Structures are given as structure tokens and as C-alpha cells.
Amino acid sequence: MHLAEGIRKHGFRKWYERELLQSHAHLALTFVCGIGVAASMELAFKSRGLSDGLPDWAAVALCAAVGIWALRRYLYLLSHAEAVANQADCPHCKAYGRLTLVKGDAGGDRVRVGCRRCGHEWHIDA
Ligand SMILES: [Zn+2]
Q1: I want to staple 3 with a disulfide (CB 3.0 to 4.6 A). Which of 16, 23, 63, 126 is the partner?
Q2: How far is the CA of 103 from the centre of ligand 1 (A)?
Q3: pLDDT per residue over 71-113, tens digit each?
């Protein structure tokens, strides 16, 4: 979910929490895919001949591809959430995460936010 849309719908803290949960769900998927690769390789090594082991090797390739995708997605979501969270301090009163959306770009990559405590406005680059 884009930053502007997330802040508008849920508020900054809920958006951040959702990003972290989503990223860690991808980490769990990476772990499951690792188990899938190990199990499929064990079956593939026990198979007799290429035609017997081909589905097992296909499962190894599929689990590896999904695992790599999930790991990349985990790292992207986590680094994106942390980069935004590092900009969530109000430059004026140092309140963390107490912000409202003032203006968001169409793509949601650069948003103008305002502090709920003091009203100061600043930009967050996603
Ligand atoms: Zn403030």
C-alpha cells in the first residue's frame, strides 16, 4: 500500500504496523520455501531416472524461485517501512509518528504531513 493511501486510511502507526507484518509474513514464506526446497531435493535424490525425478526437480525450482521472491519482498518492505519511520519525527517538537496527511502525490512516494501536537508540516519521501 502506498504511503499516502495508507496514512489516509489507517494513520501512520497502523500503516507502519501493517508494513512490518506484511514484510515478516514474506519472511515466514521464505522459511517455508526453504523447507520445500530441502524436502523436494531429498525426494529428487531418491528418485530413479530423470523422468521419475523431474517433478521433484521442478518443485525444487519452484520453491527456490518463490523463496527468492519472498526474501526480496521481505527486504524491500522492511527497508521501506524503516526509511519512512526514520522521517516520522516532527522536526519541530520531536513527536514520533503523531502525524496526519496534508497532501500526497498521485503515486504516494512523497507526502506532506503535519504534526498532530504542534501543527508543523514537513515532507516524507518514501
Ligand atoms: Zn510537532
Answers
A1: 126
A2: 17
A3: 999 999 999 999 999 999 999 999 999 999 998 875 657 899 9
CA 100 from centre of chain: 22
C-alpha triplet 18, 24, 25: angle, nearest 5°: 85
Cα separations in angstroms, 4 against 28, 62, 101, 123: 27, 35, 7, 11
CA 44, CA 60: separation in Å to the nearest integer?
8
Return the amino acid letter for 55.
P
State in Å: Cα 20 to ligand 1 middle. Answer: 24
pTM given for the model? 0.84
Dist. CA 53–CA 64, nearest whole Å: 17
Residue 114 pairs in a beta bridge with 100, 121
